[in-house]
Design brief:
The chain is of the alpha/beta class and 453 residues long. The protein is built from 14 helices and 24 strands. The chain has helices at 10-21, 33-40, 55-61, 76-89, 107-114, 122-135, 171-175, 214-220, 238-249, 261-270, 284-289, 305-318, 331-337, 348-364; strands spanning 2-6, 25-30, 46-49, 68-71, 93-97, 118-120, 141-145, 150-156, 166-167, 180-186, 189-191, 198-199, 204-210, 230-234, 253-258, 275-278, 297-300, 323-327, 344-346, 371-377, 382-388, 409-416, 419-421, 434-439.
Length: 453
Amino acid sequence: MKIIIAGCGKVGHTLAENLTSAGHTVTVMDKSYDALYSVTNTVDVMGYQGDSTSINSQLEAGIKDADLLIAVTSDDEINMLTCLIAKKTGSCKTIARIRNPQYTDEIAYLRDELGLYMSINPEMVAAEEMVRLIQIPSALEVDTFAKGKVSLIGVEIPEDSILDRLRIKDMPSKAGANALVCVTEHNHEVSIPNGDTVLYSGDRISVTLSMADVSAFLNSIGIKAKKIKNVLIAGGGTISYYLAKRLIALRINVKIIEIDRKRCEELAELLPKAMIINGDATEKRLLTEESIEEMDAVCCLMHQDEANILLSLYINKLDTRIKTITRIHRNSYEELVTELPVGRTVSTKDITSDYITRYVRSMQNAVGSEVESLYQIMDNRVEALEFNVGEDFSYAGTELKDLKLLNNTLICSISRGGKIIRPGGRDTMEYGDKVVVVTTNKGLTSIQEIIER
């Protein structure tokens, strides 16, 4: 596909990398030469310096021949106007990043009026991901499929767990939950397991199961499922607002520490049920006064990565039982923090890129067979995808035991008519099913591609 990306910030850069690696022809646009050069110097893309809201600039950048325009500048209004002009000038689909909370309730109307193929609010999506992590505090990762009916959770096997030195095929009789181990990480090596794979304490595993079975499964393998009641949010930005609003709706007590007094006043008006504290969340005295040790979870969402990392390290030293979520902005810190005890890290640029990449993939698929959901798990080394099975699927009705799947690929669940099927050898995939697949093979766009010919 021919794709134009308007905006060469962190999101635009990450998108350019992901889409070119998937084989797309990408042109990037930005008014700033320095921003443009930072992308074109490191990624194999065409660059055009110009204003994305100018018809002439879009024409010169190739909008007439483009299949898709993605607007991810730092300004919502510019993104919307860019997409509107692209829709009127060319015949391509458009995607816009729209972040301002004032547009939240109007987004469906805006999509229709602007002819957007997709819009994304990164802060809201990141907040939803954090809510899932807080709801299952022992999990390293939580992703959902089949409209929330199937969960894919990542956990670390604790010491003295019943899973230690256990073969996966023996797990159902031991764990007592209908969980399927989809991915394992042993000694930093990630693999898609089979029934004979042996698990060890310290391994990271990703399992699929229904949300109703999560607590029973965690308890059975030695992870105490503690309910979160009190959450501290460091930083009062947009993502903090969305997160606090969702947590309050779940009857969780929320404290927000924000250094800017004016922003505190705004948050106090927007979130009357939250406790808003004006102060520096990296000050030990303030944290002590606000009973940091009594918190069940702390979300480090300040603007500075260094402040978020330092606070997370302090929380880990104070009490490892406190769930910690750390927001990271800078690319250079992402690999570094994986070696530090900072809890779960969240990057809005990565979330935005993942969502848009998923939609770009769905545009390539045959009619009715598309990527419904896409998640990067195990530090982006494995993809978990939910496919719609379309009428074009050649193997509908064929028992799974008779299919030869790609290496390092596993079918985790099948959703049919609202019923969740844990797949076995005699099960089949049928038209209309939603199928969850995990694989180390990147770039799959259709359920057809998981089967070797």
